[in-house]
Amino acid sequence: MNLLFKIAGTHVRNRLRQTIVSTLGVALGVGFSIAMAALMQGSQRDFVESLINAIPHVEIRDEKRDPTLQPASRFYQAVAFHGLRPLDDIGGIRNPTEAMASLRDWVDGNLAQQLSGQAVLRYSGQDLGMTLVGVVPTDELSVSTIKDDMRRGRFEDLATTPDSLVIGDSAAGRLGADLGDTVTVTSASGLSKRFKIVGIFHKGVSASDEALAYAPLKAVQILLEKPNVINRITLRLDTIAEAPAVAERAERQLGYKAVSWEEANEGLMEAFAVRNVIMYTVVGAILVVAGFGIFNIISTIVHEKARDIAILKSLGFPEHDIQLIFVLEGLVIGILGALAGCLLGYGLSSYLSTIRFEFSVGREMTHLPIYMSVWHYAIASGIALISAGVAGFFPARRAARLNPVDIIRGAT
């Protein structure tokens, strides 16, 4: 085996310029593949982390996963009903205190209760439709990032100021209202109540900044005429991986639909999975292209060393050893290229992580989101070695099949 390595090394050294070019081709393929994988996975992880911080890990809603069965369907075996009047249901999760207590017994994390409904805000002759959310401020701060989104005022003031309101900056601008102003809030049933603005937030999402407002839970229950009723329970877990299991158990326990953040963003997660497939396909294609350079140099060596091959076979070297010599030459180039590519990939990833962006709105993304993983290096190097091995195999097989007599006689 040592002799085979020496012969392979001699062949590679004799064509040093071509070897360096092929090695650089593999190195560039591996390096850029690692950097691209680090950037794409880093952006994905950064986006998912931002998404997780912005939404509840588990959300329990006042609805059933399956439609409520009407009494007529239970008593009569009919294909269809005409003129059936369904039972009226005001909705909501009843006995919220009991529901919250039953969840706190086993959920590792924070819980918050909400009651939301549609309302109209009126100020200085301007009307604006809003989603009014009643919250317990201390609980809401433990499950959401609303405190970080506050631009003026404090979210905690909802607990100390009666009939207080926190709205988005876009809504405040459209109404012409400011901190400390009093607005009139009218529910869908026509009941009106006056609220004082104690805070203004900015989430960067127009749907929230223009059409979302927070108020104390008790005040919203009175306005919406739903005393002791909530329609949503949000959970922020200590271990996010437990979200699907917690949602399933909570749904069995309470009977209401419980949705984990993964289920709520199922389409987005599928898009990420497709993007990862595309990413690794591109990585593989880059390294396969680099493998053609190895194929070219090994084919050239086989052509130039035809007489050497004939002499080796005449000395008794079996076809397997001849083939192994040229496969080793391809692997040597692949290994050198993979090592250099890993260094290049690390350098590129480190440099990209230092690039800073600053946006005109004043919000800054400190650095490009780079995620370095040993798997990026292992996968890129593995594909490079496979490409090198395959690129060396076909010329090697042709070399092993050469007839030494024909070579020595000068036959083509």
From TrEMBL:
Statement: the UniProt record of this protein carries the keyword Membrane: yes
Family (UniProt): Belongs to the ABC-4 integral membrane protein family. LolC/E subfamily.
Domain named MacB-like periplasmic core: residues: 19-252
Signal peptide: none
Alphabetical UniProt keywords: Cell membrane, Membrane, Transmembrane, Transmembrane helix
Designated name of the protein: ABC transporter
Chain segments annotated as transmembrane: 20-40, 277-303, 324-348, 368-394
Membrane topology qualifier: Multi-pass membrane protein
GO BP of this protein: lipoprotein localization to outer membrane
